[in-house]
Description:
Number of strands: 9
Strand order of the largest sheet: 1-4-5-6-7-8-9
Number of helices: 17
Largest sheet: 7 strands, parallel
Amino acid sequence: MKHDVLSELSASGSLGGDQVTNSRERVLKALALQKSDRVPVVPFIITFAAKYAGFKFIEYAKDSNILAKSQIAMAGRFRIDAVYVDSDPVIEIEAMGAEVKYPKDESPMASRPTVKTLDDVKSLKVPDPERDGRLPVWLDAIRILKEQVGDDFAVFGSLNAPFQAAAQLLGLTETCMYLYRNPGLVYELLELTTETIVTFMKSEIEAGADAIVLGDAISSPTVISPKHFELFSMPYIREVIRRAGGKAPFILHICGDATPIIDKMVETGTRYLEVDSYVDLSQVRRKHGDSIGIIGNISPTLLLTGTAEAVEESCRKAIEAAGLTGAYILGSGCELPRNTPHINLDTMVKAAERYGRYT
Length: 359
């Protein structure tokens, strides 16, 4: 049965009051690389929110009201400090003209490679975020969240980075081949995906996003080499951030062990790095100090299968490694699994309250 989320939260007093208002202030302070009362908690939550609120994921991905209701329900129940507007890695390419398939209760995905030649690139378009595909779903969800809980929670918008969008259009296997055999095609496509992401980014900021999470899972060193990241991904991330004109802070998310490219990630101009559990937070902090924010990096596998005691200990170590400078948000290394036990998410917040107080 679907929750009437706003009514439930309003009736219970979960919206409003000092605690939830402090959530927004807590996150905005952290995004400014400053201290508030304690470390904020913002795991990367998408499918978990849909399931918690009682919706099929296809509903979540297609309906802005359902997306917003699910995020509000999740944040209100678990006392998370921000809400996310995100659903899948193919939203931009679908609006550009790619074919997308919708599994019943899984993330939408590209049905087949769209680009094989330069003529294919020319057949695509830079979409209108207010009209094309499902881009309006995300924009409307940001507006709904901003209007209904924007004084209580920070609102994070999301984008798929130019290289990730290009790889979805080319096909993942084909992308690795084209990097060596036809880099000109990749560069041509990247010009188009960059314009698409920049256009969408500007609309998300105008809609009210407090920060932009820029996802680039395909740039992980587990997928492409650090050299290819430097050639094909980093310059375009930097361009997106540059063209935001400082109107919103960016959180750059790259999965896996991003250690070999951490320095290059910092050079993109992002405000925050969202890193996976393989990355040594203390090493990043020692090298870059508090000039760069870090969000992460509790293992999603641990959150799914570990005990509450193990989760608490992992959170404690992460906070001690990176969290006491103010430039830190406790989060999951990647997306929170949909079947994560509720106690483990509760434990993250309790750990921040226990170990993340600033003195």
